[in-house]
Amino acid sequence: MGILYDEVRKMFKLDTAHTTYLIGVSEEGYVGHIYYGKRLQQFGGRYLMRMEEMPFTPSVNLRDKNSFMDFFPTEYPTSGVGDYRESCLNVRNSVGSIGSELFYESYSIEEGKPALPGLPASFGREGEVQTLRIVCKDPVLGLHVTLLYSVFEREDVIVRSVNIENAGEEKLRLEKVYSACLDMENRDFEMVNLCGSWARERHIQRAELRYGKQLVSSARGESSHQEHPFLALVTPNTTQETGEVYAMHFVYSGNFIVQAELTQFDYVRMVMGIHGEDFCWRLAPGESFQAPEVVMTYSESGFGKMTRSLHDFYREHLIRSPYKYKKRPVLINNWEATYFDFDTEKLLDIAREAKKNGIEMLVMDDGWFGKRNCDDNSLGDWTVNEEKLTTGLSDLVNQVRSLGMEFGIWFEPEMISRDSDLFRAHPDWAIQIRGREPGQSRAQYVLDISRKEVRDYAYECVAKILRSAPITYVKWDMNRQLSDIGSACLPSDAQGELFHRYVLGLYEMQERLVTDFPELLLENCSGGGARFDPGMLYYSPQIWCSDDTDAIERLRIQEGTALIYPLSTMGAHVSDCPNHIVGRQTPFETRGNVALAGTFGYELDITKISEEERAQIPGQVEQYHKYRELIQTGDYYRIASWTDKKPYDCWEVAAKDASQALVTFVQVLGQPNVHSKSIVLRGLDEAGKYRLIGTEEVYTGEELMKCGFLIRDVKGDFQSKLYRFVRE
Ligand code: GLA
What we know:
Layout: E1 2-6, E2 11-15, E3 19-25, E4 31-38, H1 65-69, E5 89-92, E6 103-111, E7 129-138, E8 143-152, E9 157-166, E10 172-185, E11 190-197, E12 200-208, E13 212-218, E14 230-234, E15 245-250, E16 256-262, E17 267-274, E18 281-283, E19 288-290, E20 294-299, H2 302-317, E21 331-333, H3 335-338, H4 344-356, E22 361-364, H5 393-402, E23 406-411, E24 415-417, H6 421-425, E25 444-446, H7 452-468, E26 473-476, H8 498-516, E27 521-524, H9 534-537, E28 542-544, H10 551-562, E29 570-571, E30 574-575, H11 588-595, E31 601-603, H12 611-614, H13 617-633, E32 635-640, E33 648-654, E34 660-667, E35 677-679, E36 689-692, E37 698-700, H14 701-707, E38 709-711, E39 719-727
Parallel strand pairs: 21-22, 21-31, 22-23, 23-26, 26-27, 27-28, 28-29, 30-31
Antiparallel strand pairs: 1-2, 2-3, 3-4, 5-10, 6-7, 7-8, 8-9, 9-19, 9-20, 10-17, 10-18, 11-12, 11-14, 13-16, 14-15, 15-20, 16-17, 24-25, 32-33, 33-34, 34-39, 35-38, 36-37, 36-39
Helix pairs in contact: 7-8, 10-11
Bound molecules: alpha-D-galactopyranose.
């Protein structure tokens, strides 16, 4: 179980329930990659390091060492010494040369999983996870590189990271530090990644892997709307149920790169880490640098298994919030209801009507502070706008609470408007390059939260408001990307640290927030879903998925998001029609059914929608209470996909004990002369009998999972229905 070391063969064997990862140490001390895939019962496969067949092996033939370096399947490639594939580590020495070479030194195995100082990190108890540390040294630089592998047996996940320590005497500069590398023979791999834009985040993209480097990355200072810190290499024709999947996912919220490189020998090198663009870290003697962690999983049974491994892993070993499995209040957010045009009375009108219909929390979005009646001012001036909140914030909160509802609030703590008192007082607090007018985005700049005094100020603004009234939810927004990367406080040789220091500053602020307010429900957000990543999940159990609340566009966004994230993390609301972003009209019922696959809430002016739509809200809220636990804890199965050329979308959540399942079916486009569709369910007990709730129909689990269930009653564009099966 867990991690084994074979002294004679100098091999490490990392076992999870269904996978094995093998590492070997060569005679010369190179740490090589041997195998990752289906679980092996015994040690084996050392020949895959190909030491014997290589005429270039340094111990045999030093003359051709470079050829060896360029071929050897390695665990952690360095640059400058003959491996011309993508390296993971670039170190510049004090005379300005780049080059490092690592040799095995020692190993240790421990129960549990170490925390990573200052970084979000997965966790697990003894018995759930074991950690292997392989220490390598570069004797010339005096560098100690520790490769960390934490093996989560039950979830089939291996988490990797790297620690670089300068144990020598010269000042070094790290110009690139990636967190993981996986060298494998090519198996005609295809790449699957998530990409998009504002309002259409995380669409699934699949393409053949071609010769050369194909990368997915962000240099925007956040994980981004456009790309996502995730990559899967899959064998051809991989489906939900079949095919092999190698996936990497980054627990980090800033610049990243994940890349697959098909090389001259038909090998693939997959790497992941902090983007090397504008990254340069000083490493003085005695200092060390900790890279963020990469979550790695292998599935031999298609995407579905990968998805469920990651869902279980994030729920059990990354999300810390007390709300992880708790009921989250059904909220109503006033953004799409009022935008900036609201006051106390308007909010109370919404709250009163919401309460009548079973909604449990009012969230006051952007526009409650400074003089903010539009988006071009006041970020940084976190004082209550008493022209709008005429009786003050705590009075409003108390009035909402006396209705029997909770109160939540929006902040954008990392930002500073050009038109703000804060900017007038501290223009140097904005990230900017000396002598250059920084670029505005939504009329705002980014606060330099790499500086302690700046993040202390920004954090105190949030904390002060939270201390002033019983507020139980915060939406932490971040509405622009970073540019003009320069800090007034960092010395010239440290400006390349700003991107990463910014992310560390953000993590420190959120850590303070969840420590000081342990009962707070925190939802992260970034202009919709630009910072939906595992790093943020460490602090908030839910993240706003997208500013696009159209139920049909959400099908794609939520399918891509749910490919790797638990449903309980996806912020999803019912909004008004025509949809504010795409202008589409969809049935209220479908908007509710789609939002139910996430955290569920409302984002509309409940006082203004039609009587007929309002009348559906109590039923939807009741539905949420009924299915919430199943959705938060169950196994997710993607049954059919509109994005995969089907006219409908369908997903299922089955209880882990197979006692019940909830199926959501959305007919995206009506089809002529099609009478019924059979939907094959998963995750049930073959021998069990399942009643379709609301009917007299009873099916065996075997029928439902082999013959399928017939959808006969959903017709027409954008119509949808939920089906609940309960074992008798
Ligand atoms: C971002 C968020 C929205 C809303 C606005 C407010 O776009 O994603 O939900 O909070 O900011 O400015």
